[in-house]
Description:
Helix content is about 5%, strand content about 55%. Strands 1, 2, 3, 6, 7, 8, 9, 10, 11 and 12 form a ten-stranded antiparallel β-sheet that branches. It is mainly beta. The chain contains one helix and twelve strands. It has one domain (about 5-40, about 50-155). It comes from Terrisporobacter mayombei. This is Phage tail protein.
Amino acid sequence: MGIRKRKVQANYLKVNDAFELLGAGFTELNESPSAQTTSKRYINQSSASQSITGYEWTTSFNADQIVSEKAIEYIRNIGEMQLTGPDTETEYLIVDLDKEGTTQGSYRARKFIIAIAVDSFSDNDGELGIEGSFLGISDPVEGTFDTSTKTFTKDFTAKSE
């Protein structure tokens, strides 16, 4: 039994019309689907019937403020300037590097439209950090991400073995 390692997922944030890798500087990216449920118990049942009604998807992040990293600068600006609404929204990709597509250098990806919520600028022994969450605005779209051209296309077809 092999447990997937964190490094087989690459994360990208759209900054100024280009996808930037969330790598150097990021110490945590934790995806939380957060299923929303409903429950009802009928008079002839002793247990409730439950179902999933939707999701309140988020990804929490922690990062060091590395100035040369475009994505971190983009996120930092949102928090420092206290931007709201559409000024906080962009695209976010989760790319599975262990699920190859049919063309060389392409992989399964999920694209989310998100709002970036910056919670704090932390002081880690004199080094500045940034913490917050990516908040899901839409349902995920499955597709293919080409790591060389940094382009996302809708739909995914796995490479046949």
